Structures are given as structure tokens and as C-alpha cells.
């Protein structure tokens, strides 16, 4: 089908931008085998040409019509050059390189915005703390679980059982399927932590294919993490693009399965081409001799550290998903006391009033605003009124201090306002704004009834399904099994636990520093630059799938988080489409965004460091394996999405 020329020009520029961002990590991985001077030269040549293109290139007349600030793109490229030069070129410790690069990017942002240097350093420290808070306990517990499962023989028992069932040649397929299934209710990082001991034990048994086993786990875990709800990323993308959750699960899995198979084949190819040895993760990693099969723990005790957190986290995820589907924060027609008085309030509302904030919402069109200001005369019109209100309550800009100056801030609103607004689920955003509306017009609208039986069940599982607590219980189970099987004293057990925590501490520092670096890249405003470039444009058909994939890919390379790339990318695509429906179901736009969010994973992505450090790989090895693997999954997901959209459009 013919694509509009302005779209082709802009899509082409976006691909070149993506190439400029993504080429530096891959080139650096290849250059890792060269001398330090050759590495630095290659980095500088690649980066200078990219910056020259961005700053001076005149690709399309649209750039001249709308001035765009390209400095965010320059800052991102400087950050990429900095971290890769320090780690690969100068062989600096990854933690120091990431922190120094984060500070550099933060200072550049400060120069651009006029913020003080102390304030920018504080931003780095805050981002580091937030990242450490998210991964610290989980990684520490995972380190304990991994060492205890390996040294107690639990991992060996699981592997022996699996090999007996599937055969040695299909072991990597079993690991991929395990990661594929477990990553649907559980975050990828947690899944990888839990399955890495199995990969290491399997390698000890077979003496080969270590990289294949690691990449098989990553393949299964990554693809469902970005395509299949109730994982937060695809869940939020489905909400933004108004895709049914059930449809997202079905089509997401349909796209994920072929992509996972392609990823597994790529894993086999990578392992044959460039095998990587399994290295000790700690100084005394091999202190305990392998046990005879008769002395290995039972299968249930061996599986408990893996099954326990998956069951607990999965139960909490399921209960929360079911409670969210009830959408108890939505306004019902029975909640409105007087529709005539409500219409009068809207008709007389000023912009600086709670009702005026609804009328001025960018989520509404003129027809919807007119519906609110005219009294509803029948049930159909009443349903239309509450539908418009519910739509406006999803506006992240609803709250205004000036508009709600005379309204007491509800506790639930104050609490939710402190949460991450980018990753907030629509049901929570509506709850936050509904509480404000209830407080502003108590005589017109009945208070929301949030606490349903299912919501109470989800709340009761809040502690048990928390990943930190679930992995703590799993670590205790692994420790107890280790102590009993090896007949260790508590003091001897404590020595092993301390050794695992020492190795885990290094991983926490590096992962948190990577998170801080990614946060600083995000604060450059690169997302706004991309969005500004595509504002006012339109596309349809296959063109919108390519655009959705490319936007998410560039956002992923720029700031590191797949979830953020998916959420921001979906919002941008929704704005570009402007309410127009493609010739296929919107679920394919969602899977294109999810596939794009896998492209270009490198050192600003926490998943990169989890794969590298928990797997015992160097940075260059991770760039040569992890980054191309996720690129393969990303392209595979895009191709599958395009094919399915044409043969099974599910339009209407």
C-alpha cells in the first residue's frame, strides 16, 4: 500500500536516529577485541558522524517549518559515548563508569535547563536510590537462592528430572518455555534470577551450551514481558490504545510464540559461533563438591524456592487484575443524584473549577463537552454523560491546585499522587481523580465504592505477593534445604550466605547505577523531541505498525526501560492516529509497540546488567549476545505482527 510522503520522510529520519543510537553499542562490542586506542577511535568516529547528522542534517522541509530542539539527542549520544568509552575503552569498573556518565549527562541537562550543579547531582543520587530500592532486596535474595540451590544440589535435582523428561538436546527448549510462562505473571528479572541456577547446573551436567541456556531463559522471559498481560507494560499499552485485555493476551501470545522460536534458534547459533565459559560468580563459588544422586534433595524441596515466589506473586497479580477489571472507580448512572443540576454545574463552570477541569480535558472532543452541558433526558443520554466523565477522569492533568483550592485533598488522591505517574494504571488514575471529584461535589455524586470482595482479596495478598517478600521466603526455603542436605551448622551456613551477598551487592550497585544513568538520559527530554518531530503527522495500515515499532525502539535505546518505552510510545502513537482506526484491530499496534521496546537494549537497561552479572558475562560479551538477541526478538515480533494484521485483521 502507498505510504504518504511526509510519513516516509519522518519514518526514515527516525530509523537513521535509531541507527545512530544503536550503532555505538554494537560497534563497541565488536571493537572489544581490538586495542584501546582503536576502540576509542572507532567510538569517536561513529559518534561524531551521528552528531553531525542530527545537528546539521536537513532531511525534510518539515524541520525548517517547526524548529525542534535536537540537544536532547546530542546529550543522549554523549552519554552513550561516555559509558562505552569508560567501560570498553578504558576498562573502568562498570559501576564507576555508569555513575560518572550519569553525572555527566545530568550536568549537561543542568546547563540546558539552568539548574544548579548541586541539584543535578541530587537528581543522580535520587535516581540511584530509586533504582536500588526496586532491585536491592530482590537481587540479594536471588543471590542467596542461586548459591544455596547450586550447593545443596537442588538445581541439579531439577535439571536431572527435566533432562530425563525432555532429553538433553531439548533442555534449552524447556528453559525457554519455563521463562515464557513464568514471565507472564512475574517480572523478567525475577524469572531470570530463579532460572539461572538451573542453567548453571545444566552446564555442569552437560559440559557445554552454557550461553545457549542463558539466552533461552532470556528469550522466553523477555518476549512475554513486553507482549502478554498482566505484565504492567503490555497491560498499560492495552489501556492507552483501548485494546481489550483478553484480546491483548491472545494476540500477544500469538506474536510472542514465533518470536520466541526465532530467539531460541538465534541462541543456538550464538552459542555455536561464540561459546562462553561458565565462570564463578564468587570467590568460593565451587567450595562444595557435587553430591551423589542418592544424596540430592527431593524434587519438591528442590523446586520450592522457584515455585513459591511464582505462586505467591502470580496469585497477587491475578487477584489484582480481576479487581482492576471491576473498575470500581468508574462513575455509574446511579451515582449521580441530579443530572439536571449536574448539567447546570458544567454549563456555568469556569476553567478554574473542578467541573471546568473536566470540560477542558484534552481527552474530550466538542461533542462530548456539549453532552455534559446539556441535561440528560433518558437512560441513553445518562449513560453517555457518565461515559464522558469517566473518560475525562483518566486525564493525568486533571488536578490543578488552583481549581481545587477550596477542596480538601482526599487521602487516596494524596497517596496516589506520590506514585510514579508514568507507570500508573488507568484504574488507579481514575480512582485518584474520582476521589477529587467526589470531594468537590458531594451533593451531586455519591462516593466511589472501591473495596469490593475481590479488591479485599487482592489487598490481603499484598504482602505475600510482594516480590521482595516472596523471594525472601524462597531464600529461607533454599537456605533450610542447603543446611539439611549438607548437614551445616548455622555458622557455616552464614558463611555461604555472606559470600553470596557479597557477589549480589556488586550486582545491586551496577544495576542501580545503570538505572540512574537511564533516568538521566530520560531527563534530557529525548521523548519530547521525538514526540515533537512527529506531532501533527498521520499514518495508517502497515505504516502505523512500522512507526509504532520505531518510536518504541528509539525510546528504548534512549532511556533503557522497556516499560517506559511502551507507555510513552503508545501515548505518542495514539496522539498521531488521532482517533482514526487502522484497517485491522488496534491490538496489532499494541504488539508493534511492545516488540519495538525490545530493540537496542544496552548498558542503560537493568536487564542488560542482570543478564551479564548473574550470568557471569563481561560487558562486551553481553553486548554481543544479549543486545542482538533482543533485537532478533524485536524484529521477529514486528514481522509476526505485520503478517497477522494482514491475514487475521479482526477489524471492527
TrEMBL record:
<keyword id="KW-1003">Cell membrane</keyword>
<feature type="transmembrane region" description="Helical">
    <location>
        <begin position="533"/>
        <end position="555"/>
    </location>
</feature>
<feature type="transmembrane region" description="Helical">
    <location>
        <begin position="131"/>
        <end position="150"/>
    </location>
</feature>
<feature type="transmembrane region" description="Helical">
    <location>
        <begin position="70"/>
        <end position="88"/>
    </location>
</feature>
<feature type="transmembrane region" description="Helical">
    <location>
        <begin position="171"/>
        <end position="195"/>
    </location>
</feature>
<dbReference type="GO" id="GO:0015128">
    <property type="term" value="F:gluconate transmembrane transporter activity"/>
</dbReference>
<feature type="transmembrane region" description="Helical">
    <location>
        <begin position="561"/>
        <end position="579"/>
    </location>
</feature>
<feature type="transmembrane region" description="Helical">
    <location>
        <begin position="623"/>
        <end position="644"/>
    </location>
</feature>
<dbReference type="Pfam" id="PF02447">
    <property type="entry name" value="GntP_permease"/>
</dbReference>
<keyword id="KW-0812">Transmembrane</keyword>
<feature type="transmembrane region" description="Helical">
    <location>
        <begin position="210"/>
        <end position="228"/>
    </location>
</feature>
<keyword id="KW-0813">Transport</keyword>
<feature type="transmembrane region" description="Helical">
    <location>
        <begin position="95"/>
        <end position="111"/>
    </location>
</feature>
<keyword id="KW-1133">Transmembrane helix</keyword>
<feature type="transmembrane region" description="Helical">
    <location>
        <begin position="502"/>
        <end position="521"/>
    </location>
</feature>
<feature type="transmembrane region" description="Helical">
    <location>
        <begin position="235"/>
        <end position="268"/>
    </location>
</feature>
<dbReference type="GO" id="GO:0005886">
    <property type="term" value="C:plasma membrane"/>
</dbReference>
<feature type="transmembrane region" description="Helical">
    <location>
        <begin position="461"/>
        <end position="482"/>
    </location>
</feature>
<comment type="similarity">
    <text>Belongs to the GntP permease family.</text>
</comment>
<protein>
    <submittedName>
        <fullName>H+/gluconate symporter-like permease</fullName>
    </submittedName>
</protein>
<dbReference type="InterPro" id="IPR003474">
    <property type="entry name" value="Glcn_transporter"/>
</dbReference>
<keyword id="KW-0472">Membrane</keyword>
<feature type="transmembrane region" description="Helical">
    <location>
        <begin position="586"/>
        <end position="603"/>
    </location>
</feature>
